[in-house]
């Protein structure tokens, strides 16, 4: 019977080793750690049986081996709970439905996946449980990248994955064992129908937005032409300023370009575009000035000058009214400032409010330089045009008194362009 007992022990040992070797070589869904842990109590039991009988006949090692083996089996049982994808899914998700599930521990070792996940990612079948997921290239490009985003910021817990003609929504979260976090879990649902609907809405909205943008652009263009037409109409009443609005718009364009290049002020692209667009509106208030005053060829009397000065405040009111429905509130405010304050002076001696220094909006300060420069170098009914040298001397003398001295550098930079522009106009005339 002793011989038979020994045979049973060796047969058990061989069968156990054979099963473990087979699982190690052929079964990828079996954890290698569990195989190692299972081998230890088997080997310990056999060794303690023979070692105890041969070396220590007065001491029984089998009970100690039994206790150690039970402890190891408890560890094995605890690990097995993590590999049961159905149980962990219940703890991790309230509703699974047709949800694919992929689990991994905090070291990003693969713990398992359900059939739905394997249908989406057939590459999961080649993964070995308890081995790193980065051994599979597709997992590195997808699952591990999503996990990396999630670990940096847990708000990044969703991603979309497209395969063939299907679109899947992937949610990243923690793998729970009861209330304890044991790793990470990816849940995968087919989101194709929703994404197709969203794309349909986006395409519709995009087409609608393009159509609205085209209509809006057309309305804005008509509005701009209307405003420019009004400015031209006002200018036609004043026989001393023909072409003034067109020339001052070009002057403003040259000045703003020089200001940006010179760096005395930080002007955005939008500010420059708005100011160039608003420049023709600066004298709209003249529509309210009596013809007898507006078309007078000589100097104004004090009473006439007071009437002429009213065009600034009146222009601001008109601009405010005609631009009241414009969505670009910044443009409306800028255009109103240009009309209202382009006759203010840096030293406070201007009109209509007597603003001083930086109380005057920047757009009005720039407009003032353009307005005065054009008045100097252009021919009027009551005067001939000045030479560029004379106009230049007056502009430079006015820096710090009439104009903001910080605009001097930009004016000097723009001066060659201004002179070339007016020279071209004179040659064409």
Explained architecture:
The protein is α+β, with helices and mostly antiparallel strands. Helix content is 61%, strand content 9%. It has helices spanning 2-26, 32-55, 62-83, 85-92, 115-120, 137-141, 143-152, 192-237, 244-262, 269-278, 291-294, 302-322, 329-341, 362-377, 388-398, 408-428; strands spanning 100-105, 110-113, 158-163, 166-177, 180-190. The chain has a 5-stranded antiparallel beta sheet with strand order 2-1-5-4-3. A hairpin with a 4-residue loop joins strand 1 (100-105) and strand 2. Helix 2 packs antiparallel against helix 3 (62-83), helix 12 (302-322) packs antiparallel against helix 13 (329-341) and helix 13 packs across helix 14.
Quick summary:
The chain is α+β, with helices and mostly antiparallel strands and about 425 residues long.
- Per DSSP, the total helix count is 16
Which strand order spans the largest sheet, edge to edge or round the barrel?
Answer: 2-1-5-4-3
Q: What structural class do the secondary elements suggest?
A: alpha+beta
Helix content: 55-70%
Mean pLDDT: 84
Biggest beta sheet attributes: 5 strands, antiparallel
End-to-end gap: 131 Å
Rg calculated over all Cα atoms: 43 Å
Which stretches of 5+ consecutive residues score pLDDT under 50? 93-97
Number of DSSP strand runs: 5
